Amino acid sequence: MSGAGFLLTVNFLIAQCFCMFFLAVSARSRNRVAARWFAGCFAVASLATVFELLVAYVPPPKPWAVLAFASMLGGMFMLRVGIGQLYGLKTNRAFLATVFAAFVALDYFIYDLPRGTLQHALPYQMPFAVALGMSAWATYRARVKSFVDRSLVVLLSVTSAHFVVKAFAAVLAGSGATAKDYLASQFALLSQSMGAVLIVAVGLMLLCVLVLEIVADEKVNAEIDALSGLLNRRGFDNGVDALVAGPGPHSIVLCDLDRFKSVNDTYGHQGGDAAIRAFGEMLQAAAPKEALVARIGGEEFVLLLPHTGRQAAMLFAHALRATRSVSPVPGLPPAVRVTSSFGVAEIGETEPLRFAMRRADDALYAAKNAGRDCVREAEPPARILEVVKRAT
Asked: Among 75, 56, 78, which Cα is nearest to 65's?
């Protein structure tokens, strides 16, 4: 087997590996359709290596040469469809199919032109450059552009341009007088070497995009409480420092469902889950866009209201209490009301967040002692700090 034939085999195996990688990633990615298109892209393009080997060993060579061209080009157009799926872009598949068919017909008609000439090399290589250029342009038009996305644009553009360069290299280095002679030419060795590098580079970059999305999704899922749909304690802790660092005032509102144990005892855990879910939905709907809303305990919730003073926070808590006290809970009898108690604290200018949380918790405890279904405001931070200083 020639060096070019060996590289063809290596390229085939690399492409098959990437096909399996993308299929594996599709099981976890939210862009599973895009991942499957990428898997198909590598699977179809890899057939070109099989057909190119058949050109050398199974006459007549022309059908195999055209099939090699078509499979490589088809994989590239599948890449364009996958990128459209990945970035949520509209893809005119009928247009792509028409262009693909036109390019394959062009390859059929130029097959008998003298090889190693620009008249043959340019029409042969340009369809590949166009197909990858379309993918580069689609990626460039995507609204979200991370460093990896921008790198993908550059890589696809370079790969597209390299096919134009290959047309001139085929003339300078010589690609053989016939398709069968291609495998024995120096140009074939150079072309397949570059192909192997670019296959790996494009495949790894696409995998990087998908894997980073999976990691981001897993991080979000780790910070979300599955029952209420709100942040959990980890999500709240990870987001609160950045908000509190901004200009104040900021306020904390702690909420607790009243007599939650009796709801579980009377209506079972399904009833308790329904109460938590309904309360979480109410908080999410009512909270300002920039607020942090989290479930931090079994039936305990917290809201961080940035740029909100104590009076506005108190009014907000009273509105939440009134809404919850008159609203039925889906899944429980219509006459059942699950009320809630609230503790509100404005965070002092230099007060640690844990102190404000403690004051809000004391106010929530006072609301419980006052008969529940009410709102209580915490002691001012200055007084609390004074007590702490005296204690020390």
From this structure: 56
